[in-house]
Specification:
Layout lengths: L1 E5 L4 H14 L2 E8 L6 H11 L3 E6 L1 H15 L10 H20 L3 E3 L8 H12 L4 E3 L1 H4 L5 H10 L13 E5 L2 E5 L29 E8 L2 E5 L2 E2 L2 H14 L4 E7 L5 E7 L1 H17 L2 H19 L6 H13 L5 E8 L2 E8 L7 H4 L9 H11 L1 H9 L4
Parallel strand pairs: 1-2, 1-4, 2-3, 4-5
Antiparallel strand pairs: 6-7, 7-12, 8-9, 8-13, 9-10, 11-12, 13-14
Helix pairs in contact: 1-7, 3-4, 4-5, 8-9, 10-11
Bound molecules: arginine.
The site of arginine has 9 residues, from helix 4, strand 6 and strand 7.
């Protein structure tokens, strides 16, 4: 049997190479990708091969991640339970998609991943694989194997000469990509505990952020970020810049209780400066160009969309339908938004668009007012009719 394994070079996936080889009598092909933060591929390859893999793939998926995953989710306003911009959730179907391609090329019979049985990531990997290659078997060693602790795994690596850099157990479990960082475990498991500063990788504490604010102008074309402070830039560069600037001002720290698909509530820390700034700016621009109906309807769609992403249903007909709706909705989402970054806050301070529905002539309280005040009298008669009827009915008792 041939198995493609999602490989990070860490303890779990190193143990998995040997364990899968022995327990499934299999040949192991390791798969690693760059989605914004990656270790040296040559070092990873050497380590995988020394551990017993018979093949190693490394793919730079950043472009695909941005264009096929991050941008559609930004346009959709996908933020799970009003806070989480879904960095980890979006990366799983992307990685699974890459693994399916390799599995087909290698004529492998199975794909393996190192997710535990109580998280969301297993769902995202497996639903994607089921959709793209229903014939492939999925193996989740961590759900099956006998090891009960990190120490037992380390013992196993010693016994079998598996090369791992055994560092002191890190205080947190961290997942990192271009769109943001997810931090779990350790003292964060008590939701009352304030995260220590070492939980954060890319943002400074608002306490230590500059006391001078910084303004940014973000330009969008049909919902896609295209410029920063008036300079045209590709989306990856915009995300990288916003991560730096936002991080410097302590913007993008998220501390939340969220509902996992398996029913567990968990305390999560995220750092996503670019995602927070871009979602804030994008939704502000929509407010300027959307009708009231569209704005309110899309809000409910955003919520369902974020759930689909979180629950691993990236590949589904319903999501395709939603993407089509979202794409049409972005027709007029062109313009600029100004935000002020200040000690952990991202505050909108201006917006403009050639497709704006805002009319200064209608809104103004000055002499330039173009609104027909007398017409409002008739409008009150008609819009107020139900209130009048209900009010009169009060006399029936
Ligand atoms: N709770 C987040 C999610 O479900 C983050 C998961 C982090 N995953 C990880 N393997 N550390 O998307």
């Amino acid at each position: 049997m041939k198995i493609v394994l999602a490989y990070s070079g860490g303890l779990d996936t190193s143990v998995a190479i040997k364990w899968l080889k022995d327990n499934y009598n299999a040949e192991i092909i390791c798969y690693t990708s760059n989605i914004g933060q990656s270790d040296d591929p040559e070092k990873l390859r050497a380590r995988a091969m020394r551990t017993g893999a018979s093949g190693f793939y490394f793919e730079d998926l950043r472009g695909r991640f941005v264009n096929q995953y991050i941008l559609p989710s930004l346009k959709a306003g996908a933020v799970y339970q009003d806070k989480y911009p879904l960095a980890t959730a979006l990366s799983r179907p992307l990685i699974a998609e890459g693994m399916v391609k390799v599995a087909k090329k290698e004529k492998a019979q199975a794909i393996a991943h190192g997710c535990t049985g109580k998280g969301n990531d297993q769902v995202r990997f497996e639903l994607t694989i089921k959709y793209l290659a229903p014939e492939l078997k999925v193996i989740a060693p961590v759900r099956e194997w006998e090891f009960k602790s990190r120490e037992e795994e380390i013992e196993y690596t010693r016994k079998h000469n598996i090369p791992v850099t055994v560092t002191k157990a890190k205080p947190y479990s961290i997942d990192w990509n271009l769109w943001g960082i997810s931090v779990e475990c350790g003292r964060l498991e008590n939701p009352w505990n304030e995260p220590t500063e070492d939980a954060y990788q890319i943002t400074v504490s608002p306490d230590r952020a500059p006391s001078k604010s910084e303004n940014l102008t973000i330009g969008f074309k049909k919902g896609i970020p295209v410029s920063l402070n008036g300079k045209s830039m590709d989306v990856i560069t915009i995300i990288e810049n916003l991560t730096k600037v936002g991080g410097r001002h302590g913007v993008g720290r998220i501390d939340m209780i969220e509902d996992r698909l398996v029913g567990i509530k968990s305390r999560e820390i995220y750092e996503a400066p670019a995602a927070v700034i871009l979602h804030t700016a994008h939704s502000e621009l929509e407010k300027l160009v959307f009708s009231r109906d569209l704005y309110e309807f899309k809000k409910t769609l955003s919520q369902r969309y974020s759930q689909l992403v979180y629950f691993g249903q990236w590949f589904s007909h319903i999501k395709d339908c939603m993407d089509a709706f979202v794409e049409t909705s972005q027709k007029f989402v062109t313009g600029e938004v100004k935000v002020k970054l200040y000690r952990g806050n991202c505050i909108v301070i201006g917006r403009r668009s050639p497709c704006s529905l805002y009319s200064e002539g209608l809104a103004t309280y000055t002499r330039k007012d173009m609104f027909d005040h007398r017409a409002a009298g008739g409008f009150m008669e008609i819009f107020g009719l139900p209130s009048k009827l209900e009010g009169e009915r009060e006399k029936c008792y």
